[in-house]
Design goal:
By secondary structure, this protein is α/β, with parallel strands linked by helices. The chain has 23 helices and 16 strands. Helix content is 47%, strand content 14%. Strand 7 (217-221) and strand 8 form a beta hairpin. It is globular, with a radius of gyration of 25 Å. The structure holds phosphoenolpyruvate and magnesium ion. The site of phosphoenolpyruvate (PEP) has 10 residues, from strand 10 and helix 18.
């Protein structure tokens, strides 16, 4: 049987399936005989204690890796201890004589149902946390072993309904051969994380969990976007060979990680780093990158109940700036909205959040939140080379309005006697309206960065999160290359820095064309660096220009993709 999906990280793998579904046995309706209530209540109280201990220990281990994600487990602890929920469970056991597992299942179910019916996505999304905690309680009730992605005993192919960023946080890279998921588009947040691990991944596989069995042998060919279940011996052998070649190729590619981004003919290509935090792990890539191409600061606001204060943000920004010293750090102001929801801010429900009050628009609606971030940035500016970048810019008015906010925050800080530095101001080119007037934009700003993840969705009118419209989300659409060229030309002509921080800039197939169009600064997550540097090293600018010229003559995305696949 062959399953089809969308490749979010390249490579092949052969191995056995491990279903990761936070699965628990769904209890059946059951009642305790009279007199047995107390024993069930005692067992419930005991597993509640165990659950809290387990959550605390995950939280502590996570705190070292990623403090933001650790907060998720605080929220889970709060649920486990929730007074109303616990009173309900007690009553169901003592008064209705539900068995403990049935009481847990039913009471949580009511809460989950109520949350899911709330129109406010901020509240309805909390149901996911309740589902997580319920799974934990039931696992403990049945004495099932913990399924943790951080402690796998053998190499496996993970098959999940949804591979959440919080799952990725604790992933054991060494024992995960590939990741398969039913949900998730190419540039969904979880896809970007999966890619950052350098593990082959195919997402958007319809009915995956209905099709696979635990320990079933499978071949994953992320390059062909297929999963072959129960492969024949010859297919298995073929893929084992391919897998060995893939591993060797990865090792060869890995050697390029610390080399410079330079073409065969000697032209320097700046390699920037895309980060979402100031974690030491993320910043460790600073030794082999030339800048921070985009710091997605909105992640500082996520997974927490209160907004980060000016001082908190200041310390984060300062750490990144100090780490990069003289090298530029492009700090993007918060890109809240779209697929990025916050629990610390009440975002109104919108029909089309990607076309709504996202990013800069959100900031203009919440000037105080914006001001806090700008103040933190300006204060941190003296510790390095800060370039401030605005996301989701639609017009020159947006830029001018943002400048007023920045000027007013600067004035305030000057009055307070704070020492500040001049910073560069730039924009993301991710909305077609702004790409089409790049010649005007470059007069208004110091630099820009092309955000292809959004530019594609707005150019092609295909939601980047919606697997259903994935075929319309065309990274290689001819319109994309025309818009990219227009933008690069405008900034290069004006002598102003232009960079690329969307996923297309870390696609080894697209890199030659981008360089051929005049791009000299690419930014990506750390995992993509070796493959991109390797591609650059095999390329002359002349060849890149030939490739770009050919791409501009082709008329469909599939023609362009096919051509780029064989161009080098
Ligand atoms: C982009 O849109 O290409 C981008 C880099 O920003 P994000 O993926 O965070 O929207
Ligand atoms: Mg974007």
């Amino acid at each position: 049987m062959v399953l089809k999906g969308k490749s979010v990280a390249p490579g092949v793998a052969v191995g056995s399936i491990s279903i990761y579904n936070d699965i628990f046995r769904i209890p059946s309706e059951a009642f305790v005989p009279e007199g047995g209530e107390q024993a069930h209540l005692d067992k419930y109280n005991l597993i509640k204690k165990e659950a809290l201990e387990e959550l605390e220990s995950i939280k502590l281990s996570m705190q070292k890796l990623d403090p933001k994600k650790a907060d998720i487990f605080n929220a889970h602890k709060e649920i486990a201890e929730d007074i109303i929920l616990n009173e309900e469970i007690h009553a169901k056991i003592l008064k209705n004589r539900f068995t403990g597992d049935w009481a847990i299942y039913k009471v949580y179910d009511t809460f989950i149902g109520m949350l899911q019916q709330t129109p406010d996505p901020l509240i309805s999304e909390r149901s996911v946390d309740f589902i997580d905690v319920r799974a934990l309680f039931l696992r403990l009730w049945y004495g099932q072993k913990k399924y943790s992605l951080s402690s796998l005993n053998e190499p496996v192919i993970i098959a999940a309904s949804d591979f959440k960023p919080s799952d990725a946080a604790s992933l054991d890279n060494n024992n995960v051969l590939a990741i398969l998921a039913e949900q998730g588009g190419l540039t969904s947040h979880s896809a970007i994380i999966a890619k950052s691990f350098g593990i082959p991944a195919v997402f958007g596989i319809d009915e995956l969990l209905k099709s696979v069995k635990q320990k079933q042998i499978a071949v994953v060919d992320a390059d062909k976007e297929i999963v072959i279940l129960d492969p024949s011996l010859s297919v298995k052998k073929k893929y084992e060979k391919k897998y060995a070649a893939y591993r060797r190729d990865r090792e060869d590619t890995e050697k390029y990680r610390t080399s410079e981004g330079r073409t065969l003919c000697g032209v320097k290509i700046d390699i920037g780093l895309n980060i979402a935090s100031a974690d030491d792990k993320e910043l460790s890539a600073s030794v082999y990158t030339d800048s921070v191409g985009v710091f997605r600061t909105e992640f500082i606001y996520m997974g927490r109940r209160t907004l980060p204060t000016e001082d908190e943000q200041f310390l984060v920004y300062r750490k990144v700036l100090e780490c990069f010293g003289e090298r530029p750090v492009i700090l993007r102001t918060m890109d809240i909205g779209g697929d990025k929801k916050l629990s610390c801010v009440d975002l109104p429900d919108e029909e089309n959040p990607f076309l709504g009050n996202r990013a800069l628009r959100f900031c203009f609606k919440h000037p105080d939140i914006f001001k806090t971030q700008i103040r933190a940035c300006l204060r941190a500016s003296v510790f390095g080379n800060l370039w401030l970048m605005l996301p989701m810019v639609t017009s020159l008015e947006d830029i001018r309005k943002a400048k007023e906010h920045i000027a007013s925050a600067r004035k305030e800080l000057e009055k307070e006697g704070k020492s500040l530095k001049d910073i560069k101001l730039g924009v993301m080119i991710e909305i077609p309206s702004i790409a089409l007037i790049a010649d005007l934009v470059c007069k208004e700003v110091d630099f820009a960065s092309i955000g292809s993840n959004d530019l594609i969705q707005y150019v092609c009118a295909a939601d980047r999160m919606n697997v259903e419209v994935e075929p319309y989300y065309q990274s290689y659409h001819p319109a994309m290359f025309r818009l990219i060229k227009k933008t690069i030309d405008a900034f290069n002509d004006a002598g102003k820095p232009i960079s690329f921080c969307g996923e297309l800039g870390s696609d080894p197939k697209a890199v030659p064309a981008l360089i051929g169009l005049g791009m000299r600064k690419l930014s990506m997550n750390a995992t993509s660096v070796p493959a991109v540097k390797r591609t650059i090293a095999s390329l002359t600018v002349k060849k890149a220009e030939e490739i770009a010229a050919k791409v501009l003559k082709l008329s469909t995305a599939s023609e362009i993709e096919k051509y780029l696949s064989g161009a080098l």
